[in-house]
Amino acid sequence: MLYIIGLGLSDERDITVKGLEAVRSCERVYLEAYTSILMVDKPRLEAFYGKPVTVAHRETVESDSDEILRDADSVNVAFLVVGDPYGATTHTDLVLRARERNIPVTTIHNASIMNAVGATGLQLYNFGQTVSIVFFTDSWRPDSFYERVAENAALGLHTLCLLDIKVREQSIENLMRGRPVYEPPRYMSVSLAAEQLIEVEASRQGNVCGADALAVGVARVGSDDQLIRAGTLRQLAAHDFGAPLHSLVLVGHRLHLLEAEILRTHAIDLDSLNRTLKDKYKLE
């Protein structure tokens, strides 16, 4: 049996009882370590699960899935995913490969940022398409997400922006020389995402994500020190949200009165937020 198990958002205790029972029944346990991270290290997971854990990097999952699936038709194997198992298409591909080999698959779900973003007070059924914001470089400043944000905005819907994570990235020099040397991990902050959104708006000029656009930044959702702050993108760009992981929500114009009340409790500057709610959303 291949178990695909969601771990939730914060630490080793977020796994479900069903998930923990499955892990403890497994001969091998793999931890997917490139689409997201937990806020605890591998030894803490191993101590809690009572099992050794093998970290599975992107190249392992995408190019060497045979090792993960080895003997899974006769022994139990666990593939652990931070959040919910199907937050990334890679995991669907692993399930398809298992089924091609007639390996039974059981999925055990958990919370992910896709539903936990409701902690902002924004109602989940008022969200549109989710987009990803990646790190800009000097020569690559992708803005293909802008059309999705604009479509959401036209319908008055909120947009959840998932922020880039760089793990086991190689410099161009090391990549060209074939040296297995990796750069330190990088996790995009709300402030950097806000800066990039403002830059894209200046280029596209569709009045979608400019400096005065209302947004909500979230950090470490599900943890004891979870942080939620609401304000303009300009304000979020200047605000320190602390340690990762971060996400950002662009607020749609169909904002409900109750949503606005919750946002006020998270305001970076309450007077400024009230002016924005009155002028742009006609809410007082």
What does this structure look like?
The chain has 284 residues and is an alpha/beta fold. It is 35% helix and 18% strand. It contains 12 helices and 12 strands. The protein has helices at 17-24, 42-49, 58-63, 65-69, 89-100, 113-116, 146-154, 172-177, 190-204, 233-237, 257-265, 270-281; strands at 2-6, 28-32, 54-56, 77-81, 105-108, 131-133, 159-163, 165-166, 186-187, 214-219, 227-232, 246-250. The strands form 3 sheets. The protein has a 5-stranded parallel beta sheet, with helices on both faces. It starts with a strand and ends with a helix.
Task: Give a summary of the structure in a few sentences.
With 284 residues, the chain is α/β, with parallel strands linked by helices. It has helices at residues 17-24, 42-49, 58-63, 65-69, 89-100, 113-116, 146-154, 172-177, 190-204, 233-237, 257-265, 270-281, and strands spanning 2-6, 28-32, 54-56, 77-81, 105-108, 131-133, 159-163, 165-166, 186-187, 214-219, 227-232, 246-250. It is globular.
What is the molecular shape? globular
Quickly count the helices.
Answer: 12
Order of helices and strands: EHEHEHHEHEHEHEEHEHEEHEHH
Radius of gyration: 21 Å
Report the span from N to C terminus.
56 Å
Main sheet makeup = 5 strands, parallel
Measured as a percent range, the helix fraction is 25-40%
* Largest sheet strand order: 3-2-4-1-5
Mean pLDDT reading: 92
> Class by helix and strand content?
alpha/beta
| Low-confidence regions | none
